[in-house]
């Protein structure tokens, strides 16, 4: 599980609760079933109306991917693995990679190298692997869009919940104490909506986009490395090319590791 994400959600919740306590507000007012119904069910309805059934039903899977701490393959190790295979192929030929491919855990790399060993044309390999990258990016984009839609709907529904609460409060103008409690309760829906939209949904969408960006970067790194191996490029030039595709901070780290070796 992605503990850092869980900590972030809990921190946001604590910020609201502690802020209310500092202001002297009654935290118990947050236990408002009516507000929860309006926000949660209303937001769910908004997402249902925005996406077809087959995409809506993917939400549990998207949440699983969001909270799952996927062990990232270090880009430095990817580069070194590609460089080592390029040395092997230059020395013993491309067919010598066949045995090494079996032990590669990365399915994308395994698929690409398998096509190289099979003698597939470079343009075909690029096309097939780029289609796979595009498909993965589209799946991630869908998840981000769902949370962005929910994040946009929740605050607006919070305002709707406040209006509904105020309508109820205006029916009890004779009881001042009860009126005060109902007005306070009315704005809980707004609080729920803003919290759910800007502390949960929009950040979740950003997290999915960032995960997608990182994964796509690794896949393009592998793609270029595979094509360079097929072209018989010098291992040193392959290493320099792949390091050049990295972010500056990643580049510095990998160059330092390479120098130590």
From TrEMBL:
GO biological process: bacterial-type flagellum-dependent swarming motility; chemotaxis
Subcellular location: Cell membrane
Membrane spanning stretches: 29-51, 146-170, 182-201
Topology of the protein relative to the lipid bilayer: Multi-pass membrane protein
UniProt-listed PROSITE patterns: MOTA (PS01307)
Superkingdom field: Bacteria
Ranges where the MotA/TolQ/ExbB proton channel domain occurs: 102-219
A GO cellular component annotation in the UniProt record: plasma membrane
Keyword Cell membrane: yes
Keywords assigned by UniProt, alphabetized: Cell membrane, Membrane, Transmembrane, Transmembrane helix, Transport
Family: Belongs to the MotA family.
Protein name: Chemotaxis protein MotA
